[in-house]
Amino acid sequence: MFRNILSVVVGLISSFFVIEVIEIIGFKLYPPPANMNFSTPDAVKEYIASSPSIVFVLVIIGYAAGAFVGGRDGCFISCNNQENSKCYFGRRNSSGFRSFQLV
C-alpha cells in the first residue's frame, strides 16, 4: 500500500520536474520582452500572438515527456517484482526487442 502511494507521489514530482525543465528551456530560447507587463491582458495577448509556433510545440512536448517520465517512474516504484510484474517498460522481450508499453 505504501509503495503504491509512494509511486504516485514520485510519478507526479518527476512529471512536474520534466515539464518545468522543458518550459524553462522554451523561455530561455524565446524570452518575453524585458519591459513586458504580465498584469495587463493586452500585453500578454500581443506576446502570445507574436510568439513563434515552436514555443507552443515545446509546451506540448513538455507535457508529453512529463506524462511519459511520470508514468515510467510510478510504474517502476509500484512493481514489487520487476521481472515478473505487469510493469515491463522498456525491457527486452523474448524476441530481443525492447517493449515500450505498460500492460
What does this structure look like?
The chain is built from 3 helices and 2 strands. The protein is mostly helical and 103 residues long. Strands 1-2 form a two-stranded antiparallel ribbon. Helix 1 packs antiparallel against helix 3. The longest helix is centred in the first third of the chain and has 28 residues, at 2-29. The mean pLDDT is 80.
How is the secondary structure organized here?
Elements: H1 2-29, H2 41-50, H3 53-78, E1 89-92, E2 98-100
Antiparallel strand pairs: 1-2
The topology string of helices and strands comes to HHHEE
Low-confidence stretches: none
Biggest sheet details: 2 strands, antiparallel
Proportion in helices: 55-70%
Distance between the termini: 20 Å
Strand content: 5-15%
Strand order of the largest sheet: 1-2
Q: Would you report the number of β strands?
A: 2
Structural class: mainly alpha
What is the overall silhouette?
elongated
Number of helices: 3
Mean pLDDT: 80
Radius of gyration: 19 Å
Task: Kindly summarize this structure in a few lines.
The protein has 3 helices and 2 strands. The chain has helices at residues 2-29, 41-50, 53-78, and strands spanning 89-92, 98-100. Helix 1 runs antiparallel to helix 3.
List keywords for this structure.
two-stranded antiparallel ribbon, 103 residues, elongated, 3 helices, mainly alpha, single chain, 62% helix
